[in-house]
Amino acid sequence: MTRNFEALLEAAKKVQTTPEHREEQRRSFAYGNTAYENSNITREMVNRQADAMASERND
């Protein structure tokens, strides 16, 4: 590994993600995997479903 790459890895280990950022990443992951299998899937559909699931958890 190069020194620059090692420095980047060390810096990445110290990053603190917010719950909002994790949720954004989760939705992006869900979209990417489902859209790969079914091109009819949209980000809006993933967001709607994620919002519905979140409201069910909070009820």
TrEMBL record:
- In terms of superkingdom, the source organism counts as Bacteria
According to UniProt, the name of this protein is Uncharacterized protein
Query: Which species?
Result: Aureimonas ureilytica
